[in-house]
Specification:
The chain has 278 residues and is an alpha+beta fold. Helix content is 46%, strand content 12%. It has three domains: 97 residues, Hect, E3 ligase catalytic domain fold (Alpha-Beta Complex); 117 residues, no CATH class; 39 residues. The chain has ten helices and eight strands. The strands form three sheets. The protein has a three-stranded mixed β-sheet with strand order 3-7-8. It has a three-stranded antiparallel β-sheet with strand order 4-5-6. Strand 1 and strand 2 form a beta hairpin. The radius of gyration is 28 Å and the shape is extended.
Length: 278
């Protein structure tokens, strides 16, 4: 294994990857300073001023700091012993993800995580320049939107949820084609045949009735649609989305929304957890 492929903080001894104690402390310092609000540039400057060198006596810069911040191997893998606890790495990853889109506020991030292409269901990417107007693209099918503000997307989502809170009637279990249960058909035919046979034993007929009943019950709601629909109604009874802040909106999303679908015109539809699209 080449030294250039080994993350800062590790070395190879006798064929095994081990932690370098001094570098381990530097890695922890970088993560804690970043969480405390220091920028990668400021972190690099502080390390250089303290006489702490990067690999091969090189000076730190923002790119080497970013390289450390983005390496998930510090959490520990089969090959690499852990240097950081999972909570610290996850906190930095969340901050990095948020900072990668500086104009995306915390409330909108709740919606962003569920946004997909209305055409193919692919995950959407957000392309922004030096304004709050972002364009959305689907790498899977090539769908592209015109510029649309985050606030406009959030307005559409909240408006739909608010309308559902005021009127639950649109919430219905979608019609779904039930798969043909050939085993149930076979058992029903067998029951009819035995029921017409005077020599048939009552215990065998009872056994068939139980098997048929179990299969029929199982086929009433094979995908849990009825249950999910009722859960959506209960959740909407408790919350008023127009008054929700980030935490309440996130809680509501987790309960009732599966995906947020966007088309090329920027129009939004919600796919609920019962499979219904509104």
């Amino acid at each position: 294994m080449k030294n250039s492929t080994i993350p800062y903080g590790y070395s190879v001894q006798n064929g095994q990857t081990v932690v370098v104690a001094a570098e381990k402390d530097v890695v922890k310092r970088i993560y804690l300073d970043y969480l405390a609000g220091s920028s990668p540039n400021r972190i690099a400057t502080a390390l250089n001023s303290a006489g702490i060198a990067y690999r091969n006596a090189r000076r730190w810069n923002k790119n080497t700091v970013y390289r450390v911040l983005d390496d998930a191997r510090y959490r520990g893998t089969d090959e690499y012993p852990s240097i950081l606890c999972a909570e610290t790495w996850d906190a930095v990853a969340a901050k990095r993800n948020q900072n990668s889109c500086p104009y995306m506020d915390a409330e909108f991030l709740v919606i962003r995580k569920k946004m997909v292409c209305a055409s193919c269901g692919g995950k959407l990417t957000r392309n922004w320049e030096k304004s709050k107007i972002a364009r959305w693209e689907c790498p899977a099918c090539g769908m592209q939107t015109e510029g649309i503000e985050d606030a406009a997307i959030r307005y559409q989502v909240v408006a739909k949820l608010d309308a559902l809170c005021q009127n639950h009637d649109p919430i219905q279990c979608p019609r779904q084609s039930k798969p043909i249960d050939f085993e149930c058909i076979r058992l029903e035919r067998e029951f009819k045949r035995m029921a017409s046979d005077p020599a048939a034993k009552p215990s065998e007929l009872d056994s068939l009735i139980q098997q048929i009943t179990q299969l029929q019950y199982k086929n009433i709601d094979p995908k849990g649609c009825l249950f999910a629909t009722e859960q959506i109604r209960l959740a909407l009874d408790k919350l008023q989305p127009s008054q929700c802040k980030n935490k309440e909106l996130e809680a509501l999303f987790k309960q009732i929304v599966s995906k947020v679908l966007m088309d090329k015109n920027g129009a939004i539809q919600l796919k609920l957890k019962n499979g219904q699209i509104l």
